[in-house]
Specification:
Blueprint (H helix, E strand, L loop, with lengths): L4 E10 L9 E9 L3 E5 L6 H8 L7 E6 L2 E2 L3 H10 E4 L12 H11 L4 H14 L15 H13 L5 E5 L7 H16 L3 E6 L10 E6 L2 E6 L1 H4 L4 H5 L6 H11 L11 H9 L1
Parallel strand pairs: 3-8, 3-9, 6-7, 7-8
Antiparallel strand pairs: 1-2, 1-4, 4-5, 9-10
Helix pairs in contact: 3-4, 3-5, 4-5, 5-6, 9-10
Length: 275
Amino acid sequence: MTGDCLARFSGVSFTYPGSTAPALSGIELEITGGEWIAVLGSNGSGKSTLAKHLNALLVPTQGDCFVKGINTKTEEGKRLARKTVSMVFQNPENQIIAAVVEEDVAFGPENLGLPSVEIRDRVRWALKLSGLEKLARKPVYALSGGQKQRLAVAGAIAQRPPCLVLDEATTMLDPRGRKDLMDVLSALHDEGMNLVSITHRLEEILLCDRCLVLSEGKIAWQGAPSDLFLLGDRLKAWGLDIPGIVKEWELLVQRGLIGRETAPGIGDMVEALCR
């Protein structure tokens, strides 16, 4: 992590027009440069609303959101937020523009007015990182669901944003497609890109630096992913499913067959279960 502040929420509340209940309420949050954050919560908890504040698709009803120190309520702040933060949504079909893979990836850089040589370099880089290099000339309609989602990621990162937000981007993928996408995200994180993963799947947070849980528009908890797995019934109260390996580990702890280590990771749990 670089230590720089990428985004800061200061008392952010947001209410959709026509609604009386706030979708977000009193959010205080700072996102550090290079950090990979997972935002968890059940449907209606405010995850997507929070994500859309990061690139100024929404601006706070109350409070302020700053991206690189600039308030997103200002025109300058909106422009900066949209250059800084790219988003990948749940359905890749809604983000694919062109009929051919490499042409779709080139769409964003072309709209930035970049020289053609740089556009080609960015397209090659994004396709290689996303595992689509050999499919550059393939028609988009021939791609699988997982490949289309990776194409959406490639199109977003070709613009070289400092931060990538994925809003339930794995929901429509099968297990292989989810693994492929998580591998791409891990590679982006290794290159120093900020990542914000909006999800309700606990198994997807293991590579993250930090996770936070939203409940009824408020931050109910935040901390290290390994600590989250120790919360037991609190996870159920937030509408989150406990991974099977965690359930088995907790059962053996309750029966006194293994000790309760402090904040074990999944690897620790698997090793304990094998013993």
